[in-house]
């Protein structure tokens, strides 16, 4: 386990605190006793504005940064808005990482994505697979932006001796997720679809694709735990496991399931008893995405929330928040 980190007494800026991952990281920091957690919503700080970001950093004595802000979405969103995904993510990471360096911030954690790896990467995907093959076309712009963020952190470490680290999570889900019917990831999209099917007494739920692709899923609270763990790692431990480029670390469970198996779990969680249909005219995306998490395990962290338990707690949150906030579900 990590010793009590000196970062806990420093001002820590969490960029993207209103998103699912950022909110979970803020919860984790507070739970660990971090005394000064700095946040700023879009109404306060435009992360795509270099001038605004630089001014924000100059006005605060930030000791560390967690860069969880990003434009995110599923296959449909990535296919529909590729320019937005590439441009906005490049701007966010470039502005925040450079402003951190310019104002003397030594510690930064950048959150990437498992989509950085080649479409046909050997499974499970090791960190060394980066840039060894062709990316999945359906989310290539987002992946390229995240790869650029990794390399930016690496470059500041090499050129300026910074301690900028990167973690690459597998597919995340949990409280605070985006449940939009078209622009969300697979778990919230299907969870909402199953919920509505139960409400409407539907006899079938149709899932995009063949149901055969294999995916790994990590609860966002586990992701937050892993992120802070890596942020707080002793320099010697971190460098010993990320040579030669002081590069990124995979974060996941090391276990995957098929989309069909995921749908079956969601049916149980939501109480749906009808049939499952699969629309093979829709894209499947990458055939399999499983992370090799041995590097992180050697550094003392493992996931603790099982998939079905995580789905049940997420569904309880979804129903509770939908009712409390009067979210309008499709009729």
Automatic annotation (TrEMBL):
It comes from the Bacteria. The keyword Oxidoreductase applies. Pfam families: Epimerase (PF01370). InterPro entries: Epimerase_deHydtase, GDP_fucose/colitose_synth, NAD(P)-bd_dom_sf. It is an enzyme of class 1 (oxidoreductase). The active site is at residue 142. Residues 12-239 form the NAD-dependent epimerase/dehydratase domain. NADP(+) binds at residues 16-22, 111-114, 146, 169-172, 185. Keywords: Isomerase, Multifunctional enzyme, NADP, Oxidoreductase. It catalyses: GDP-beta-L-fucose + NADP(+) = GDP-4-dehydro-alpha-D-rhamnose + NADPH + H(+). SUPFAM superfamilies: NAD(P)-binding Rossmann-fold domains. Its EC number is 1.1.1.271. Pathway: Nucleotide-sugar biosynthesis; GDP-L-fucose biosynthesis via de novo pathway; GDP-L-fucose from GDP-alpha-D-mannose: step 2/2. Substrate binds at residues 193, 208, 215, 284. The record marks 113, 115 as: Important for catalytic activity. Belongs to the NAD(P)-dependent epimerase/dehydratase family. Fucose synthase subfamily. Catalyzes the two-step NADP-dependent conversion of GDP-4-dehydro-6-deoxy-D-mannose to GDP-fucose, involving an epimerase and a reductase reaction. This is GDP-L-fucose synthase. The gene is fcl.
């Amino acid at each position: 386990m990590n010793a009590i980190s000196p970062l806990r007494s420093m001002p820590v800026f969490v960029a993207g605190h209103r998103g699912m991952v950022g909110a979970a990281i803020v919860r984790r920091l507070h739970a660990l006793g971090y005394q000064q957690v700095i946040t700023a919503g879009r109404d306060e700080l435009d992360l795509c504005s270099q001038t605004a970001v630089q001014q924000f950093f100059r006005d605060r004595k930030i000791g560390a940064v967690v860069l969880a802000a990003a434009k995110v979405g599923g296959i449909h969103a990535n296919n529909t808005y590729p320019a937005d995904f590439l441009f906005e993510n490049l701007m966010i990471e470039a502005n925040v990482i450079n402003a951190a360096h310019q104002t003397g911030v030594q510690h930064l954690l950048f959150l990437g994505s498992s989509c950085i790896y080649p479409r046909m990467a050997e499974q499970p995907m090791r960190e060394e697979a980066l840039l060894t093959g062709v990316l999945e076309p359906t989310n290539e712009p987002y992946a390229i932006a995240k790869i650029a963020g990794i390399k930016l952190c690496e470059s500041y470490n090499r050129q300026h001796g910074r301690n900028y680290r990167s973690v690459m999570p597998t597919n995340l889900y949990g409280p605070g997720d985006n449940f939009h019917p078209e622009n969300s990831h697979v778990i919230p999209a299907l969870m909402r679809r199953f919920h509505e099917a139960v409400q409407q007494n539907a006899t079938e739920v149709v899932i995009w694709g063949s149901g055969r692709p294999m995916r790994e899923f990590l609860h966002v609270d586990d992701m937050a735990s892993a992120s802070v763990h890596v942020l707080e790692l002793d320099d010697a431990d971190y460098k010993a496991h990320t040579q030669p480029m002081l590069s990124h670390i995979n974060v996941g469970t090391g276990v995957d399931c098929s989309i069909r198996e995921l749908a079956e779990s969601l049916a149980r969680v939501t109480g749906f008893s009808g049939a499952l249909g699969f629309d093979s005219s829709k894209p499947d995306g990458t055939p399999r995405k499983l992370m090799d998490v041995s590097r992180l395990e050697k550094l003392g962290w493992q996931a603790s929330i099982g998939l079905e338990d995580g789905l049940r707690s997420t569904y309880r949150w979804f129903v509770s928040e939908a009712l409390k906030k009067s979210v309008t579900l499709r009729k």
